[in-house]
Amino acid sequence: MLLTPRATRRTRTQSPSRTRPRISRHRKAALLASAVSVCLLAASSPAQPLGIGDRLFPYLGNPGYDVASYDVSFTYPGTNDKPLQAVTTISAKTTADLERINLDFAHGTVQSVEVDGHPAEFTSAGEDLVVTPEHPLSEGSWTRITVKHTSDPVAAKGQEGGWVRTTDGLAMANQADAAHLVFPCNDHPSDKAMFTFHVTAPKGYTVVANGVPTGTEQAGSATTWTYRTRHPMATELAQVSIGHSAVLHRAGPRGLAVRDVVPSADRKALQPWLDKTPAQIAWMESKVGTYPFETYGVLMAQASTGFELETQTLSLFEKDLFTEPAYPKWYIESIMVHELSHQWFGDSVSPRTWSDVWLNEGHATWYEALYAEETAHRPMVDRMKAAYTASDGWRAAGGPPALPKAAAPGQKISIFRPNIYDGAALVLYALRQEIGKPAFEQLERAWVQEHRDSTASTADFIRLASTVSGRDLSGFLKGWLYDEKTPPMPGHPDWKSADPTKAPKAGRQPSGPGASPRAGRKSPGPVTSPKSSRKVSDPVASPGAAEPQTR
């Protein structure tokens, strides 16, 4: 949500002074009239879309307030081609005096808005819902905004993400900037908040969302399901699944509740894959520490998205990833670990800006590759050498890992390029080569512990790496993260990066939320599916090859 700073700020109360000159009654009246006219002028000025100035998505997020919680209610009509009735309530604390509140919301009909229980005026500006409360909001005050609206699962022309229509209902894929196509919000990962979802669906449907269930209520032929998070969450990680689903429960490490959501008819066929999750969680915990949330699970959707996505506590996967015989088992398992590792890197520790997304994808790709090395004998060094060969081409096409180029017009998720997947994992490999394995592993554990349930930046990573290693790594890491050319690889002076001007024309690149090795998947690796022109074989692509798509 975005709140517009008031034209005139309240002055702080001053201490009484015996020497302060008195103001005449006529002078007071003149000053009051002047202040009123300024306020009226500000209120009557045209509403404008605002943003927090993110380099890649300048109009995402809104200044002037910090969201503490969202309470979102959806009523599913029983068909996924009709709008859902919805109510979104936002509790926030203002960080400035505000005449208006800007919320990100761009795909639905707003029926009414209340601020602190009072009706408020509203209009749209760009992709913002601009709300004018009955009374201005003062800096440091708590406010509650309730928006009654519709949430349309049918995408408008030129829009990407939000609701995903499955064969039996709906799911969500909001990365990077699509949560505001589903509900009004402050749609930027820097403003994490607690979430509660209430979803009403007809008899026969099952609803699952982020967090843990807190109960169900039946009214006639409909059931309302309620879920609540126990940790703050970025809007891009919200997940609601509505469908004819089976919810399977099992125990993970230390009794962690693991729940998976699959199409009821495919329960038995998918069970062997689901059984792998507890051991994968234990493997990740052995690398970076205790799982950071209250539950975890896999949502296998009957939909063609072209990507997998790390929605918090319930990662989204296409069902056909697990049923397509062309995908090797080791590859599927590594993709599962890619999305699982995001729960630490990207979900618990979220990027402060979208230019920091390499911290999400580089780490997820790293642990995907490390898992493949340790469990399927796919050498990490081979993948990294291939990535080094392609690195200059990736930097030329998409920018350095920590300075990615903006999205292509009309393709907002095109920021998910190889430079933030294998290109960013290559940075981590270089860092491990430079400081040694023990210090690198200490850094990884310290990173997720120090920034748990918060946000962090590239500068934070460089600072912590220097602290843990005991020496200033700013020059070393800035070269790897920001330079147009790939620096020499420590320990491998023979590695060469191909001349991007002579490399073959790049094939299809990862797209969509968290694209993975399959064409259109957000997860790591250069292994693609039958949907692309590449064979599913090695986890590393040759220069110019199509990249897997995972997010």
TrEMBL record:
Catalytic activity: Release of an N-terminal amino acid, Xaa-|-Yaa- from a peptide, amide or arylamide. Xaa is preferably Ala, but may be most amino acids including Pro (slow action). When a terminal hydrophobic residue is followed by a prolyl residue, the two may be released as an intact Xaa-Pro dipeptide
EC class (word): hydrolase
Record-annotated Peptidase M1 membrane alanine aminopeptidase domain positions: 275-480
Gene3D superfamilies: Neutral Protease Domain 2, tricorn interacting facor f3 domain
Domain Aminopeptidase N-like N-terminal: 174-235
GO biological process: proteolysis
Cited PANTHER family: PROTEASE M1 ZINC METALLOPROTEASE
Family: Belongs to the peptidase M1 family.
Descriptive protein name: Aminopeptidase N
Lineage, highest ranks first: Bacteria, Bacillati, Actinomycetota, Actinomycetes, Kitasatosporales
